[in-house]
Amino acid sequence: MSASSLVAETVWKSIDSSRSGTVTEEQLSIEMHSLNFLFGKNFERATKIVDQRGVKKISGEPSGRSVFQVVGESRRKEEYLCFPEHYCACYSFFYDIVNRGEQLSCKHQLAARLAASLGICIEVKVPDEQLAQLLSTI
């Protein structure tokens, strides 16, 4: 794991703890600036997606397994399935992260992680069978 990845993980954990009330607004603001520094324009774009309520967390029942569905920024408003720490179905994930190794995460992964950390995802519950069908499209 790179130094940038380790720093990012530390910041994410701090933001996660903000939901329990142990982090002040000032500390949260500092953490957000840190993420902006680490991820640049991808983080700025991710915050716009979160602000527009573009992140759904789709959870299967009864298993509790989940995947995120994140709206893109294009006019077509495509939705991408992603696992915030590991995968996104968007073109940028394959081009900038997998092929070129230039980024740690795409904007959809960042949006999903930020919305989940702040507890502001749109929560959708579906039967496990429906979740499996959705995942089979990846």
Task: Explain how this protein is built.
It is a single chain. With 138 residues, the chain is α+β, with helices and mostly antiparallel strands. The protein is built from 6 helices and 5 strands; from the N terminus they run αααββββααβα. The protein has helices spanning 3-17, 25-39, 41-51, 91-99, 107-118, 128-135; strands at residues 55-61, 66-71, 79-83, 87-88, 122-127. A 5-stranded mixed beta sheet has the order 4-3-2-1-5. The radius of gyration is 15 Å and the shape is globular. The model has no long low-confidence stretch (mean pLDDT 86).
Give a short synopsis of this structure.
The chain is of the alpha+beta class. 51% of the residues lie in helices and 19% in strands.
> What is the makeup of the main sheet?
5 strands, mixed
Q: What is the succession of H and E elements?
A: HHHEEEEHHEH
Radius of gyration: 15 Å
Q: State the end-to-end distance.
A: 26 Å
Unreliable segments (pLDDT under 50, ≥5 consecutive)?
A: none
Number of strands: 5
Number of helices: 6
Helix content: 40-55%
Content of β-strand:
15-25%
Shape descriptor reads globular
Strand order of the largest sheet: 4-3-2-1-5
Structural class, judged by helices and strands? alpha+beta
Arithmetic mean of pLDDT: 86
* Quaternary structure: single chain
